[in-house]
Amino acid sequence: MRCICRLCASLAAGLALFLLWLGLPGLTTAQGDCTVIYPLRGGWAIEMCASDPAITTPMAVVLDGAAQGMAALVRVYHTTEDATGTPQVAVLYASGFVRLKQNDDPPSSIPFGSSFVFGPAYWPGVSTYYHNPQLTSLRIDTSWLPSGPLRLRAEGTNHDFDVTYEMSLPLPRDRQARLHVVQTYTATQAIAIAPTRRGQAQGFKLVQISSMFINEGSSCSGGHTDCHDSNAARFIGDDLVRRQVVFRNLTPSTFIFSSTLPLGNTWLDALHTDDGGWQGNTPNVRIALDVLPLDHTVTPQGWISATTDFSDENVSLWLHDDGPASQGWAAGQSDQVSYWLVAQDDPPEPWADLGLRSGWTFLNFQGSYDCTFVEDAQQATSGTLKPIAGYADTALQLEYGLGNRSGNWVQVRCDFEPPLDLAAYDHLRFDWRGDPDAANSLEIGLVNPEDNREHIFARGYHHVAHRAWWGQLVIPFRFLHPWTEGSSFDPSRVSALFVSVVKDPADDVGGTGSLAIDNLNVYAVGPRSVPSNFSTLSANPVASTHAAQWLASQQRAIGLLKSWEEEVACAAHTYDQALALIVFSHERMWNEANALVGALAQAQNENGSWFKSYDCNDSQLPCIHCQEWEGDIAWAIYALSHYMDLGGTHPQALAVRNRAADWLATHVNSADGCLVIDHTEGTIDAWWALNAAGPAYADKAQGLKSCLLTYYWDEGMGRFKGGRDWQQPYLDNQTWGGAFLRAIGRGDSARRALSYAYQVLRLPGQGGQLFGFDGQGGPWSVWNEGTGQYAATGGQEAHDLLQELVAQQRADGALSGGPDDFNGGGVWTTRWHGVAPTAWLYNALNGEPFHPPPWQAWVPLVLKKP
């Protein structure tokens, strides 16, 4: 179907882009019936065009509350990262079509290719089809620019559905452009979906990709060759195996996938695997759902029509709702889906995109290998190994049965003859994917040979094997534990690697499941390059103000804040209250700050401590989690000091802070200056708290400083350990510890700590549309709070990471815990919107929360003896 004029769109885009290249001030001139409505400033420009050959009905456009008239389409431009050009990155049509491309702009401009089509599309009869919505209005909000997203709201209809689209276009990147869409659709009358079309997985389409493929290397009408904008499609099914179809192998007209299978991961790709095409190197595009339904009721499908006309978009791909939506609708019934639309040059491979493929990949299962299934012969376990289609190429999958006895295990073991010499490296890293229905534990080991025996060095990860999307596992060699007392790991002689699935007594389910591995790799973190300066961040007053206002909306009558908006219980975590108090104090929101201080005074225990969390709907403030944790209490102390430093005047603040500081001081061991618990993060927290509490606690703070530098700082690796003898990577230790090092005048060490986190804890979200940090190795899942900590502390690429947070910020200011839900391996990430992630976004935007009290300088004065 010819939905938009591809050639006209390309010519119009090229002319408007040419005007930018001419350097016309702020794109004040446009061709034909196009009008610049947002002149180039801060890297952004917007124009609207009144007509387009393929658009019969225009939409009303409103910019920042001011009516702009009717438009067939709106174009968005953005300056490249090197400031050499300002290409188009997005076009939104009144027909509900959207085009995106990455923000790169080499000597020849990158063309648009495949389009996205907003949903829903549906078949109320076997021969009646409503393909795309008609947008009646588009409201554009530029108030978050230039460092925040362009926000848009479109309204319209698709026959018997009223539709709205809340959209957010984050700061485009040279490698990728993306648009987030919250799509709401309401039936205006009763609708029945044709059963035949439902059976073909096309009865009710949530969102679509529209593209073109005629051939590769041959000609088509108009004298063009390489007549395609995409040439393949792929997704991962609910059997967790990649399905990839190459279009040249199909005989149109036909469905693209010969058999349907529900999504097992969140994304569907239209690939452009070569750099050819009649228009040039058009982008690869992806639809990535925010959430995959637990009942697996979204199925990818597509259709390719026979044509020789290069202007036909003869390829359609879509996500089908297999649930009640594809059966029928009652008048007034409404539903919603949210997703990302992504465009980039190469097929999405997030780890390569983020530079997470360094080092040496010694086994990738593309050639020969010596890997076998191993089981505990004493137990009733079973398993097989087989190659599968992994994320992008061949992977190895273990299919297992663990039974239900705790301690049961199965294993995939890969042997190397001769042994591998890994002496030049210090961290093991490999790709893996678990099974959502098999919540068990993993154990990873390397083997040293010695005569007729083996020495095993391994590390277990509790309750993680249910993470069902591809990611990496990073293991420091020093974190591997010897199974033979007194043995030491020799990286120059590694004769085997194994990955075991284990049923731990606590939490694990045993039973059947699968585990896939790929790209076994080692890399050297110790000799890494460390930035010479801390990163600086761009301010965004709108994002900052909205974050603070949302935090205030979470405050309850008693003064405490509900920590998670979507949680049923009103749980107020002490640590979160401390973060909120810092934000309120910095914003001079004294009513909110004073109410919070009063609540902390009421909740304080007689001994000066606080419990971990309280019921914020009960005026008596009963505890929910009734444990005392030094880190939470330290943050409350620090926040109260911060509040008073910035002018807070609550009459109880000083006494409450000092009682808590007295309590914390009693938990410092006078013999070595450390906390009585062996905990790096808690020790860092305690230093910040007692250092900020004033000269009365200076001796204790000095002892904690000495403890951190003596027992917890790893000079060889340039990072803070998890404990005196605990080598697992933790993000808090590097971020808050980096701020500590900077505060005591050790900026070089601070940058080393942050660069360690950068090397081992970065990861992409499940759909590849977002990235950030996890709080500990694994890494398992993006943790927005920790990403905010890193950005606030000025780590490498902090600006880009801050943009990842702002890209996810809701219009009301709230930030979720992360893009993916995961609970295992000692971490919990959630899509709930929370106080901690939102407060850390605010901190990163405002250079908070680490600043010296008035009586202390950042760089200590060093007195030398005469």
Report what the structure shows.
- With about 850 residues, the protein is of the alpha+beta class.
- The chain folds into 3 domains: about 240 residues, Beta-galactosidase, Chain A, domain 5, CATH 2.70.98; about 160 residues, Sandwich (Jelly Rolls); about 300 residues, Alpha/alpha barrel (Glycosyltransferase), CATH 1.50.10.
- The protein has 15 helices and 48 strands.
- Strands 1, 2, 5, 6, 7, 8, 9, 10, 16, 21, 24 and 25 form a 12-stranded antiparallel β-sheet that branches. It has an 11-stranded mixed β-sheet with strand order 4-3-11-12-13-14-27-23-22-19-20, with no helix packed on it.
- A hairpin with a 3-residue loop joins strand 6 and strand 7.
- About 55% of the residues are buried.
- The N terminus and C terminus are likely disordered.
How is the secondary structure organized here?
Blueprint: H1 6-21, E1 34-41, E2 44-49, E3 59-63, E4 66-71, E5 73-78, E6 88-93, E7 97-100, E8 115-117, E9 121-125, E10 128-130, E11 134-141, E12 150-158, E13 161-169, E14 176-187, E15 191-192, H2 195-199, E16 204-211, E17 219-220, E18 224-225, E19 232-237, E20 242-246, E21 254-255, E22 263-271, E23 284-289, E24 298-304, E25 315-321, E26 328-329, E27 334-344, H3 350-353, E28 360-363, E29 371-375, E30 382-389, E31 394-401, E32 409-420, E33 427-433, E34 441-450, E35 453-461, E36 471-476, E37 481-482, E38 494-502, E39 512-523, H4 541-553, E40 571-573, H5 574-586, H6 590-603, E41 613-615, E42 623-625, H7 630-645, H8 653-665, H9 680-692, H10 698-712, E43 713-714, E44 719-720, H11 731-743, H12 747-760, E45 762-764, E46 771-773, H13 784-792, H14 798-808, E47 822-824, E48 827-829, H15 835-846
Parallel strand pairs: 3-11
Antiparallel strand pairs: 1-2, 2-5, 3-4, 5-6, 6-7, 7-8, 8-16, 9-10, 9-16, 11-12, 12-13, 13-14, 14-27, 15-26, 16-25, 17-18, 19-20, 19-22, 21-24, 22-23, 23-27, 24-25, 28-39, 29-32, 30-31, 31-39, 32-38, 33-36, 33-39, 34-35, 34-38, 35-37, 40-41, 41-42, 43-44, 45-46, 47-48
Helix pairs in contact: 4-15, 5-6, 5-7, 5-15, 7-8, 7-9, 9-10, 9-11, 11-12, 11-13, 13-14, 13-15
